[in-house]
């Protein structure tokens, strides 16, 4: 074998998407660039028939269905794609168990990054504390998140604004300033 | 739906060897491992064209992350020229076309067995450590399901007891490499069989460390800026290997982790374990303008 | 330069592979065909442990590795992992098997009859040394029975369940992609039933035998009676995209049921694998029979035997000890020398007081 394989367009896109997600979650609060616009690329990079997905984003529904993932209620989902966050959503998410914290859900939602409510972040991946402005997240979501997290149980949140993404793992403490 | 949408063009080998579904699974598991630092996340761990126990866990992570622009460095026991490191580097380049380097400063992705490079890693770098045994509790509990329950309960009493018994018996903690360490104050992890010298490099580091055990099908992560605290008693401090005062006979480098080379006359000489640091030190001594990055240890002492 | 150049290592690796293959000569299509034809039981064993049914690929793997079994199986597993999953075949049922051999030690005769089939069980194991003196050993032709035994037969356990001697296992209703797949998910404990049976099916024969034998000798509580041992061929029935179901071909399979008295009912152990491999399925069924309630850490506990009979993992780990470990070794030496020095210092310190 002489020539090495060449990545397809799909491989290149999903590889770059994952790179952004990985660093977004590793350095909570630092906004990363996605290769394209919107959450569809996250579906491509992460979701297949091995997943249980709750999709409340009509623009994504067809794409999610094509992945073969099982469509489920929020409580049973390992991945959720929503068109808007609501204060009661954290209380409906899978948080994992003591034996399997990794069974906590991943939630992908739109938000405005760089303007809106100021949040102070701390925890793993944050060098001390970090302030970030996030809009389009309803009042009460952050307190709802705070209420349900019982580390190491919890859920991960990706906020997508066009071609930018911000990650908030369960290990991040969020204070609304 | 058309037949076209259900199929894809035939390829003799997927880019990066692993197919898209294997990569997606590893991506999902890596994200969870980042979110819960030090927690062992089970993953499918597909078979790869290398024997189990030879870096198949690290290889699957590298194969998932790699793209044609990822500059890769592969080391084994600190050396780029070890045959197994050469074999893995060759495989990664072959399945991805990615460029390779021996220089830790140039690398985007470093796959390593048993060492963390001596030069400080940056916040855009990923260190992938090969892990033979992901379970720090195995010496006190070989059964994986019981050990998992102990992690769930944060029940590390037997771990502490074992360390205490070593101190009573031998006057010190006898753990060599793989020193059990508490991550983010919650999970005890094995840092993989890196020497004690290297464990402090993971504490509040700027780079991302992904530890992957292919045979045991578990991965865990130390994100940047995360506490990694070796298990120690307040009155018995953590001790790295006593290498701070040793000098490399080949390069003259001093104050780094060394390989001991027994000599015919019964004595030993030492050479620096981080082979590329040794090479760069020699090149600099010979008058070349070589960039050597800041190192975690200076004059044999860890700088925080 | 003081350090070994990377190139040198690569050259050494290349030459070491050439040395390994130097005495084997060329791998030709004829050689592969001969391996396939001459050693069907070896090919079967390799296919079972690789969990990949393809006689040509298995014969090729054997030819390519010179019969280094662990290497041959790793080669096939690594090839298998890259293959797309096109569809999931219909379940194979015991009564649907095209049966070549089927024996029971539990009853003198069984519904459907004892079928001795192909076996060396009653052969006198005498080496045919005349072949080495230039003679050809031609096997005597088979004389067909006047009445062929029925090709398809029920299982003995089914009869026992009908007669209230054992509780038949709950049918597993998972179908298609919902069937847990141990090659795509990590094995966790307590294991899915599907994962247990899949792991045993692809387990290393020698490993299964060692632990199964330990259980049979008394390290397990249940002494197995071979309820039924069967060598058969199974149709691989798949669905055409147009909806037609059809057999894409037949694969050789082995299966064993073993039972033992557990209170007032019979306990049942089961195992099946691709290819014909009697030792493996009897030993594996014995482990299955003994696993329920086995103490943690015992040889018959599921976690213990499933982890330790995984041939690719165990052989890989075993040979990985050939890799350099001088960093970890140095780290241990440092702790040892320091502890020794401390002890000596304490002894020196204690002396003047005496």
TrEMBL record, chain A:
SUPFAM superfamilies: PhnH-like (SSF159709)
UniProt GO BP: organic phosphonate metabolic process
InterPro entries with a match to the protein in the record: PhnH-like_sp, Phosphonate_metab_PhnH
Pfam families: PhnH (PF05845)
Protein name per the record: PhnH protein
Organism: Salipiger mucosus DSM 16094
Automatic annotation (TrEMBL), chain B:
UniProt EC number: 4.7.1.1
Enzyme class: lyase
Molecular function per GO: 4 iron, 4 sulfur cluster binding; alpha-D-ribose 1-methylphosphonate 5-phosphate C-P-lyase activity; metal ion binding
UniProt-listed GO biological process terms: organic phosphonate catabolic process
Catalytic activity: alpha-D-ribose 1-methylphosphonate 5-phosphate + AH2 + S-adenosyl-L-methionine = alpha-D-ribose 1,2-cyclic phosphate 5-phosphate + methane + 5'-deoxyadenosine + L-methionine + A + H(+)
InterPro entries: PhnJ
One protein family per Pfam: PhnJ
Lineage top rank: taxon: Bacteria
Family to which this protein belongs: Belongs to the PhnJ family.
Its biological purpose: Catalyzes the breakage of the C-P bond in alpha-D-ribose 1-methylphosphonate 5-phosphate (PRPn) forming alpha-D-ribose.
Protein name per UniProt: Alpha-D-ribose 1-methylphosphonate 5-phosphate C-P lyase
Natural source organism: Salipiger mucosus DSM 16094
Automatic annotation (TrEMBL), chain C:
Single Gene Ontology BP annotation: organic phosphonate metabolic process
Domain of life of the native organism: Bacteria
Pfam families in the cross-refs: PhnI
Descriptive protein name: PhnI protein
Originating species: Salipiger mucosus DSM 16094
């Amino acid at each position: 074998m002489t020539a090495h394989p060449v990545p397809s367009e799909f491989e290149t896109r999903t590889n770059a998407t994952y790179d952004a997600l990985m660093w977004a979650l590793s350095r909570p609060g630092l906004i990363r660039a996605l290769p394209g616009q919107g959450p569809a690329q996250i579906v491509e990079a992460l979701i297949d028939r091995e997943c249980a997905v709750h999709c409340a984003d009509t623009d994504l529904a067809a794409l999610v269905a094509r992945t073969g993932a099982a469509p489920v209620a929020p409580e049973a989902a390992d991945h959720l794609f929503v068109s808007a966050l609501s204060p009661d959503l954290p209380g409906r998410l899978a948080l994992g168990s003591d034996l399997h914290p990794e069974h906590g859900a991943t939630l992908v939602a739109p938000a405005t990054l760089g303007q809106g409510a100021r949040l102070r972040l701390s925890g793993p991946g944050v060098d001390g504390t970090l302030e970030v402005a996030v809009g389009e997240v309803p009042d009460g979501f952050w307190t709802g998140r705070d209420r349900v997290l019982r580390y190491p149980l919890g859920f991960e949140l990706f906020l997508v604004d066009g071609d930018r993404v911000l990650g908030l793992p369960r290990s991040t403490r969020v204070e609304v300033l | 739906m058309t037949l076209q949408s259900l199929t894809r063009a035939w390829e003799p080998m997927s880019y990066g060897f692993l197919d898209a579904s294997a990569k997606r699974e590893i991506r999902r598991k890596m994200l969870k491992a980042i979110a819960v630092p030090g927690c062992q996340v089970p993953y499918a761990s597909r078979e790869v064209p290398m024997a189990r126990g030879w870096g198949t866990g690290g290889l699957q992570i590298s194969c998932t992350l790699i793209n044609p622009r990822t500059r890769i460095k592969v080391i084994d026991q600190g050396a780029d020229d070890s045959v197994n490191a050469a074999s893995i580097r060759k495989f990664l380049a072959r399945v991805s076309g990615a460029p390779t380097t021996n220089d830790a400063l140039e690398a985007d992705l470093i796959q390593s067995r048993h060492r963390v490079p001596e030069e400080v890693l940056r916040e855009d770098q990923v260190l992938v450590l090969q892990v033979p045994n992901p379970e720090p509790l195995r010496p006190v509990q070989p059964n994986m399901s019981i050990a998992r329950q102990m992690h769930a309960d944060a029940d590390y009493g037997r771990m502490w007891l074992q360390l205490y018994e070593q101190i009573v018996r031998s006057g010190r903690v006898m753990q060599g490499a793989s020193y059990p360490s508490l991550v983010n104050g919650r999970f005890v992890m094995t840092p993989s069989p890196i020497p004690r010298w290297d464990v402090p490099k993971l504490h509040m580091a700027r780079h991302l460390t992904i530890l992957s055990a292919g045979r045991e099908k578990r991965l865990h992560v130390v994100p940047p800026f995360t506490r990694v605290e070796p298990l120690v008693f307040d009155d018995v401090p953590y001790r790295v290997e006593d290498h701070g005062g040793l000098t490399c006979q080949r390069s003259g480098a001093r104050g780094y982790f060394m390989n001991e080379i027994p000599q015919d006359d019964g004595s030993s000489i030492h050479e620096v374990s981080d082979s590329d640091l040794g090479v760069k030190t020699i090149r600099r001594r010979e008058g070349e303008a070589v960039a050597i990055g800041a190192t975690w240890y200076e004059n044999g002492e860890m700088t925080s | 330069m003081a350090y070994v150049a990377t190139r040198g290592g690569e050259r050494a690796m290349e030459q070491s592979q050439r040395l390994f293959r130097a005495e084997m000569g060329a791998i030709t299509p004829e050689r592969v065909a001969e391996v396939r034809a001459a050693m069907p039981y070896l090919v079967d064993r390799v296919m079972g442990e690789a969990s990949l049914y393809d006689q040509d690929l298995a014969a090729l793997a054997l030819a390519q590795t010179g019969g280094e079994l662990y290497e041959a199986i790793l080669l096939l597993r690594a090839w298998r992992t890259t293959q797309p999953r096109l569809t999931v075949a219909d379940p194979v049922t015991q009564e649907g098997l095209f049966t070549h051999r089927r024996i029971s030690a539990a009853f003198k005769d069984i519904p459907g009859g004892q079928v001795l089939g192909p076996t060396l069980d009653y052969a006198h194991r005498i080496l045919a040394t005349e072949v080495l003196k230039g003679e050809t050993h031609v096997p005597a032709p088979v004389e067909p029975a006047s009445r062929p035994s029925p090709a398809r037969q029920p299982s003995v356990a089914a009869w026992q369940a009908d007669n209230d001697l054992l509780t038949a296992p709950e049918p597993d209703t998972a179908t298609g992609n919902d069937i847990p797949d141990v090659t795509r998910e990590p094995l966790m404990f307590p294991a899915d039933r599907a994962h247990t049976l899949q792991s045993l099916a692809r387990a290393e024969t020698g490993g299964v035998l060692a632990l199964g034998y330990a259980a049979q000798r008394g390290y397990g509580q249940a002494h197995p009676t071979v309820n039924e041992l069967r060598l058969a061929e199974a149709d691989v029935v798949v669905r055409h995209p147009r909806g037609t179901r059809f057999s894409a071909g037949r694969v050789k399979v082995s299966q064993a049921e073993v039972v033992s008295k557990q209170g007032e009912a019979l306990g049942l152990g089961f195992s099946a694998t691709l290819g014909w491999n009697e030792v493996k399925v009897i030993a594996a069924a014995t482990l299955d029979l003994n696993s329920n309630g086995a103490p943690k850490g015992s040889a018959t506990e599921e976690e213990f035997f499933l982890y330790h009979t995984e041939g690719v993992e165990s052989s890989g780990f075993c040979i990985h000890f050939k890799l350099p470990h001088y960093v970890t070794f140095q780290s241990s030496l440092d702790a040892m020398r320091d502890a020794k020095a401390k002890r000596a210092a304490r002894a020196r310190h204690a002396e003047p007081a005496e």
